Each structure stands twice: as structure tokens, then as C-alpha cells.
Amino acid sequence: MPSIAAYDFPEFIETVCFLKDRPAFALADGTLRLPAGGETSLVLHEGGLLSAVYDSSGKRLLTGGEDGRVVATIDGEQIEEIAAIGRRWIGAVAGGPNGAVGFASGRSAYVVPAKGALKELKHPRTVEGLAFAPKGLRVATAHYDGASLFFPATDAGPAMLGWKGAHLDAAFSPDGRFLVTIMQENALHGWRLDDGKHMRMTGYPAKVKDWSWSAKGKFLATSGAPAAILWPFSGKDGPMGKAPIELGTRGNAMVTAVACHPAEDMLAIGYNDGMILAVRFADSKEALLRRGGSSPVRTMAWDRAGRLLAFGAESGEAGVVDIAG
Amino acid sequence: MSETASTAQPIPVTVLTGYLGSGKTTLLNRILSEDHGRKYAVIVNEFGEIGIDNDLIVESDEEIYEMNNGCVCCTVRGDLVRVVEGLTRRKGRFDAIIVETTGLADPVPVAQTFFMDDDVRTKTQLDAVVALVDAKHLPHRLKDSREAEDQIAFADVVLLNKTDLVTADELVAVEATVRAINPHAVIHRTERAGIEISKVLDQKAFDLKRVLDGDPDFIDAAKEAQAHAHTHDHDHDHHDHACGPDCDHEHHHHNHHGEGVSPIHDVTVTSISLKGGPLEPKKFFPWIQALTQEQGPNILRLKGIIAFNDDPDRYVVQGVHMIIEGDHQRPWREDEARVSRLVFIGRQLDHEELEAGFAACAAKAKAPA
């Protein structure tokens, strides 16, 4: 039976991750809490934190705040300031290969290579989200009416991937063959990058808020429905013409967070009532990891070994589940 | 230590519209500098001369997103979805949000954002749309821009500002123009945007439970409808310049507002007021749904209180373009006439057709009251 170390933070938890194997909780008030082994608190941003992602390539947490700063921390104790653009909100951050960092504010995306100067990529519309391709220095931005692909090391203009509607976030498949976006209207959209062929992934009753690639990139797991929806990406055509897998279906709850296990085909699913299940892809076998809580699960992350699952909820409830007990 | 989490109350949102130079910044500064003990987040298009401790000013590019559902008028403000989501994550950080729009902004996508986006809708409650009008320049504005008219037509509260810059006659004329565009708004006359905050914030104009409660026109009509309300006492509160149609210092053309056609050149928005007895729900709902589907782009605002046949409760509806919502409000009182009222503000509305459609929803009369 899994055991839980439970924590209760005073604020909305935006993102959880493991930094040097310690669970770290990034709160909307701009602080980073590391509760294990004597609680520490690190101020990442004055005012508040708006965006945070774990950069698996740099093994660090990247965050953007109301203070117009983008910072990184590897150990949860030291902060490195990546950029500061003044009094504007940083709406999205992304980590890329070789230490590159991307972020977005208003109608600009910015790329900061590990060595080199900040580069601004101006857009006609607000940059809602961005992502780096797994290899090389290639960035995709999500915006109204589609996505744009940049090679920021060059001065070439972007390649446009058009699809009507507002696109709020972007992700490359781990093999780099596909780009997927989250849309304002309860759907995902995707493109096969070879030929720009469209992939429509619709049918969600709510906006997709969280997504996670499975080990080896075979599936993209998503929230936004009473079950976790997993789109198959292993075939040549991606999810085109295929039905998604549904895991952890519940009649009276919505999935709000998903985290694929780092090695096995297994998914942690968080719900709006605070429940967390672990579900195996192969036989849909479910294990209860957390019975419930006072608010929706916002964020979840596995440790490298795939034994500990850290989670954070909107009310500040949090914890670390040890699935081996 | 932080207090224990309580059930989250939706954060009220006030939208300030008004043409360039109408006094929005002055009003905002007044609101923020008053010693009210409340914390506001203010969303502006550009950091201007606003900036008060304790309150948060957020800059945001006005950005209209069409929803990908084939409906041209289903638009939201993408920037508001994003900023409001960011602002509402932390409980108790703000007591209210104020959205200041640019002079040329269309108020409709702003309002629709608070109905169409699920996250925004659960965490906030649109409180009121407040329009500032420059009393001196309104006539020119109406000639050269449709936005100025839209802002007035869409407003719940109109501040007729800069009254010190016009003569008494000009003021009467400009107020009549505002009334012609929007007979249902509460109008306040101001100089240098001087007004009590309580007249601007916390209006609950979009609260279904209070639909038409603050509508001077509707209150008037309700009085009319009450057979025993024949006194000539103006017993309603009248301590400022909230000029309802029954306000005794000006009796301009309210009797005709139902006709919808404004005598004033440059005004293209009309208002249509429908009144009838109890309605049949099986006729009313299909009618209003079809109507808002077909006429949605022409309807700026819609509000109503409906008496349904055999229903002890008042039913209230409101709408913006194609979005319509309704609910039971409260039981009809013994002494209340069971009157159904529906008001539309929009363009190219066909009064006769609306009148006929509404009349066709009437419940078969049993015993007329």
C-alpha cells in the first residue's frame, strides 16, 4: 500500500518537481518550498509566480513572474536570473536542449541560449505558450490562429502552422515529429512537421490544462475529461484516424492533472476532488494513491526512479506518495 | 499564518469603458486613492498615470479571440482569460478586479469573456459595465465612431462626465441622447469623474437574481403595472443625479422609448421594451433561443423578468449577443401583478416582429387579473 507524506502550504501550487531528488513546490505567491529534510523556502519572484516548468534537459526549475524576471534553480537553494524585462508579466517559460531557455511576454517570445545574448521574436499576436524541439535550437510558439516555428539562431522568418482559433500552449513529441497545441475551445490540435498535415483531437468537455508524454513518447496523456485521454503517437500518422485510450474514468469527477511514469507505461491521474489514481496502460488496472482533498490537483511529478510521486493542489494541499509503501 | 481556506466567492469584475479623454483614468485614480480598505487589481491597456500602493496594475494588450464554433459574435478577450486566470489563483489577494478598456474598445467581447470561458466564469462575477461619457464631446464622438455609441448602449451605469464644460441646455440634450441610446442604464452626472465608489462598484448588474432591479425604466414600468400604485409621490431615493425616467427634473421622451427609434441623428442603437401577461414556457424558450441564434449579432443586451403560467416564481433572463442565461429569481408577491417584461438593446431590431413573437408566447388566458 502506498504511503503519503502530506504537506499543507498556504497558497495555490503551480508546479511541483524534484530538484536533486528533493520534492520542490512552486507556489503562486512566488516562493519555492522544499519540505523534506527541514523545510526551506526560497523567494523566486516578488509579487507572484505566473509560469513554471521543470527543464528535464538542464535538470532545473524555470519560472516566470509578475516581476518580469525569469529565474532558474537547480537545487532549490540558489537562484540564477536568466532574464529581466521590467514591469511585464512572464506568461510562459520553456527549457530547451543545451541549456537554452525560452519565455513569452505579451506579443514577444524570447530565447536565451546557454552562451549568447537574449533574442526577441516579435509576433503580431500574443504568444500564449512556447516549446523547444527535442534536438537543435528550434522553438515553436502558440498564438491566435496557429503556431510558428523559429530557428532562433538564424534571422530567418518563422514557418507558420495555421489553424483557426486561439492556441494556448505547445509541445513537441519526444521524437520531434509532431507539434501539438492546446486550444481555447476544449481541444488539442496537432501538425505532422514533415508535411504539415493536421491532427484534430477534440471531444473534451473542458479545457485541457495538463499533459504528459509517456515513456518513449508513445502516448500523450491529457486532462480535460472525466477520464485521462491518451492519444497514440507511435504510428507514422500519430493519432490521426485512431481513437484515444481512456484511463481512470469516473462518473462524477474531472481529470485536472496527469503525469506519466518515467519508465513504465503507467499514468498518475489527479482529479478535481483531489483524488489521485495510478493506472496501467496495458490492462487499465487502477491503484488508489490519494483518496481525495479539498481542491483540484494542479500538478504532479515523478522522481527519476519512478518511485515517488509529488503532487500539489489549488488550495495548497500537497504531498509525496511512495508507491512502494 | 494564513486563514483557513473558505469557499471561494467569485471576485467581482467592473468594466470601465469610455472614449479617449472621457475621464477613465481620473475615475480609476479616484477609486484607487479613496480610503476604502479594499484591494483592487486593475487591468489596463497601458501603464498610464495610475499606480497606487496595495493595488496591482497589470498591463495587457486588448486581444479579441473568435471562438472556433462558427459563430461570428462569439468573441472573448484572450488577454483577460490569461490575466484573470493568473489573478484568481490566490484566494483573498484581491477584493475586486477593474478592467479599463481603450477608447475604441468593443465592450461585448469583454463581457462575453466572463460568460464563455469556464475558468473565468467560475472564479469571477461580472459586476457592471460602466461607461464614461464626455458631455462636451459626445455629439462629435457619435458622428465619427460607432464605438462611443456601443459603449453607452452596453453600459449598466453611465457617468455623464465633464458637466462643468457644458451649458445647462447642452447637458439636457446630451443626457437625452444617452437615454435614447440606453433607457435602462443608471445615469450619474459628474465633474472630474467625482462620484461615490458605491455608485460604480458593487452594482451586481449581471446578477440574475437582480436582473432589472436597478433599471430605472423597469422600476417605472413595474410601478405602472401595479394597479394600486397610483400615488404621485416620488418616494424613491433621489439624493444624487441618478436620473431615472421618473426623475422629476426632466421628463424627456421616456414615454416613447419603447418605440425604439431615436429622434437623434447619429444614433443607430435602438431599445425595445416588451410587456405582457403570463407566458407559456413551452412557447417562450424555443422562441427566445431561436431569436438569439438568428438575431444574436444585432442584440447587444437583453434582460427580462418573465411570469410563467402556473409558476409561483419570477423567472429572469439576460443575454449578450447569442449568450443567454436564465433562472428562477424569487416567488411573486401577492400584491405583484404577474407581468412579463423583456427589453432589448441593439441594432436593426424589428419591433413588430419582436412584439408579435413575444405575444405568441402568451399563456392561454384563464381569468385575466
From TrEMBL, chain A:
Source organism of the structure: Jiella flava
Protein name (record): WD40 repeat domain-containing protein
Domain Anaphase-promoting complex subunit 4-like WD40: 262-323
Origin superkingdom: Bacteria
Entry-linked Pfam families: ANAPC4_WD40
Automatic annotation (TrEMBL), chain B:
Record keywords, A-Z: Chaperone, Hydrolase, Nucleotide-binding
Entry-linked InterPro entries: CobW-likC_sf, CobW-like_C, CobW/HypB/UreG_nucleotide-bd, P-loop_NTPase, Zinc-reg_GTPase_activator
Start and end residues of each CobW C-terminal domain: 269-362
Gene3D superfamilies listed in its UniProt record: CobW-like, C-terminal domain, P-loop containing nucleotide triphosphate hydrolases
Reactions it catalyzes: GTP + H2O = GDP + phosphate + H(+)
Keyword Nucleotide-binding set for record: yes
Pfam family name, one: cobW
Top-level taxon of the source organism: Bacteria
GO molecular function annotation: hydrolase activity; nucleotide binding
UniProt feature coiled coil, ranges: none
Family: Belongs to the SIMIBI class G3E GTPase family. ZNG1 subfamily.
Role this protein plays: Zinc chaperone that directly transfers zinc cofactor to target proteins, thereby activating them. Zinc is transferred from the CXCC motif in the GTPase domain to the zinc binding site in target proteins in a process requiring GTP hydrolysis.
Name by which UniProt lists this protein: GTP-binding protein
